[in-house]
Records
---
Amino acid sequence: MFARFIAAAVVVAGFSTAAVAGGKQDFTMVNKTGYAIEEVYVSPSAASDWQEDVLGQDVLENGKSVHIKFSRGTQACKWDVKVVYTDKETAEWEQFDLCTTSKITIHYDRASGETSAEYE
């Protein structure tokens, strides 16, 4: 199953490494924006804050991917995702069902200025 979410934002994208080890919410993020992503946040949809940057000191370069891992004890399936580009512009998506999603690919359309995320 393939779906698409769009968030209006002027962006610069990239992406790199991840969190813990072996949960059903694990997924791969692919950067197809043409820009480097400096920060990635993945927080439960019910959370009131973004928690920690899962990339740490890494940067997700354009054309690269990162595998994001969760601990086996993680229960939540609905997660929000936020990316921060090297120019500090951001894009956010809500309610990804990471229990059924294995890959999120981020795109940027220069003509419209929109960032989109496809997931499967």
---
Amino acid sequence: MVVNKSKAAFRTIAEVAEELGVATHVLRFWETKFSQIKPMKRSGGRRYYRPDDVELVKTIKHFLYDERYTIEGVQKLFKEKGVKNLVGEEIQKDFFNVPEIEPDAPMREFLSGLRQKLSALQHSLAAAVEKSKQS
């Protein structure tokens, strides 16, 4: 079941495995052989692959399965030519780098009101916490 996610979305190991057509244990094994694969791990050890990780494992799969390299051969290739040269310039790109936009007057007014509401909520929560401590 492939879910339509944006390019910048994190993916579970199962989603990446399905997309690549490999088993999840293969991806975990590749993590032990390629230090460049560093999925984010959340509580319980659940892996979340960043877009860069997905591109990297696609490249590794290509060299192993299509080009018929050995794991040692791919490691040597990464060391000699560099991961960025093999995977492409997209690797290590900050997918969450949003260009700064100067908000117009209505947006500034909206954001100012939102900031005030959040501040009031923060004070209310702090007061409620303090009251519960006294009880």
